[in-house]
Amino acid sequence: MDEKYAELRQAVEAAELVDAHAHNIITHASTIPFLSCFSEASGKALSFVPSTLNFKRSLRDIGKLYCTEFSLEAIKNCRSVSGIATLSNTCFEAAKISAVLIDDAIELENMIDTWQHKYIVPFVGRILRIERLAEQILDEGIKNGKSWTLDTFTDTFIGRLTSLSVKVDTWRIVNVVALKSIAAYRSGLDINPNVTKKEAEEALAQVLVDGNPVRITNKNFIDYIFVRSLELALRFDWPMQIHTGFGDKDLDLRQANPLHLRNLLEDPRFLDSRIVLLHASYPFSREASYLSSIYHQVYLHFGLAIPKLSVHGMISTMKRLLELAPIKKVMFSTDGCAFPETFYLGAKWAREVIFSVLRDACNEGDLSIPEALEAVTDIFSANSKKFYKLDVK
After folding, report:
1. Beta-strand pair 176-181/123-129
2. What was the pLDDT predicted at 25?
3. What is the rounded CA–CA span in Å between residue 239 and residue 127?
4. DSSP states of 190-220 as a string?
5. What is the spatial distance between Cα 195 and Cα 219, in angstroms, rounded to a whole number?
6. Cα torsion through 385, 132, 334, 223, rounded to 10
7. 326 φ, ψ to 5°?
8. Does 208 score more than 90 pLDDT?
9. How far is CA 285 from each of CA 264, 319, 323, 349, rounded to the nearest angstrom?
10. Is 165 helix (H, G, I), strand (E, B) or coil?
């Protein structure tokens, strides 16, 4: 059996990786607990993380990478001595990541600027989070004494996105390659593509009353921002990434099922859009697979589900994605955030899981070995390069 799949194993281990969804890495010791490297939990729930399968497995993986003891204290000590630059180079070199697309909306202590990731990885692209952009625009106006109306906000929002659509070939600027929405976190995925101007005006007024700095949670206003953004995404040929499935406890998982997107996907205005469902939509992986099989505009990423689940969970989730999803629509990502180890773990276990799933597909007659070899390249890099139109040298 091992000899039969030696070529597949070699292809998986040697594959170039394009990380199509991640977040910033911090520069120095942070107030973020290192346990957050292994879980989406927060607060008191973090105390239970060391008893999870993911933590126990990942601790051994990191210990082997750093050539240290398999204990939390030993690894934390190694991190404090080595420094973030050395750790980042070690993790990315082991991961063989050639490109990373970064959602830089999460603000962390001592955060590296997005362009500075070019010191770590050959190609960096920016994913622009639309809700964060809207909040920044409103905050800037409030600070300057501006009285917002829906029309003035919309003009400013569209103008800002339009300016970011221009490609700039400068070291310190990272071009936008995709938009992203966290509507699932704020108001759910039952997005109304036909929110009225009156509803949006009333929603904006409520948003401005709710607090400063602005945090947008009003459903009508989130839906309005989403629709305007998707219109511009079509105009500028940007994909729209959408958080689906699990996350931290701010998320109401019941509203994060991608099936709620049906009204949006059926809207004639957006049939030519390109929608990316993030995180394998776990635990709604079959639902995501179904949507990608019947809607030509729906694509899938599986970061976060890999490596945050158990080994069985990662393999079964990947198999559920491929039950119906076209292989050409499935893309690798890590959802790496704050810690360079998250990128390494995402890459390591993506290789293990993809090998296991493709090997089983060959054994079961779904794929031939040449087809599995093509799937390796497609899933790890080719699909993302084509989809995001990346010039990765």
Report:
1. parallel
2. 87
3. 10
4. ---TT--HHHHHHHHHHHHHH-SS-----HH
5. 10
6. -80
7. -65, 135
8. yes
9. 19, 9, 10, 18
10. coil
CB within 8 A of 31, min separation 6: which ones? 109
The residues with which 304 forms a beta bridge, in sequence order, are: 307
Long-range contacts at 320-324 (CB < 8 A, ≥ 24 apart): 320/285, 320/286, 320/289, 321/280, 321/285, 321/288, 321/289, 322/289, 322/357, 322/361, 323/286, 323/289, 324/286, 324/289, 324/290, 324/292, 324/293
Quote the CA–CA distance of 385 and 178 in Å, as a whole number: 13
**DSSP 3-state assignment of 181?**
strand
| Closest by CA position to 162, among listed 231, 264, 114 | 231
Interval 33-73: pLDDT, tens: 999 999 999 999 999 999 999 999 999 999 999 999 999 99
Q: What is the mean pLDDT of the chain?
A: 96
Alpha helix segments (H runs only) across the chain: 6-14, 53-66, 72-82, 84-95, 130-143, 150-164, 183-186, 197-210, 219-236, 262-266, 285-294, 305-308, 311-321, 340-363, 369-377, 383-387
| Three-state secondary-structure class, residue 328 | helix
Residue type, 264: L
Helix, strand or coil, per DSSP, at residue 316: helix
- Name the DSSP class of 294: H
Higher pLDDT, 212 or 178: 178
> Is residue 236 a contact partner of residue 175, using CB atoms and an 8 Å limit?
no
CA 385-389-392 angle, to 5 degrees, is 55
pLDDT digits (tens, 9 = 90+) for 78-101: 999 998 899 999 999 999 999 999
| 283, 244 contact by CB (below 8 A) | no
Residues 207/216, Cβ–Cβ less than 8 Å = yes
Widest distance between CA atoms in the chain: 70
State the CB neighbour count (10 A cutoff) for residue 197: 11
- Say if residue 170 is exposed, middle or buried (CB neighbours under 10 Å; 0-12, 13-18, 19+): exposed
Q: What are phi and psi of 79, to 5 degrees?
A: -65, -40
Distance CA 42, CA 33 (A): 9
One-letter amino acid at 160 equals R
What length is written for the chain?
393
Within 10 A of 84 (CB to CB), how many other CB atoms are there?
Answer: 19
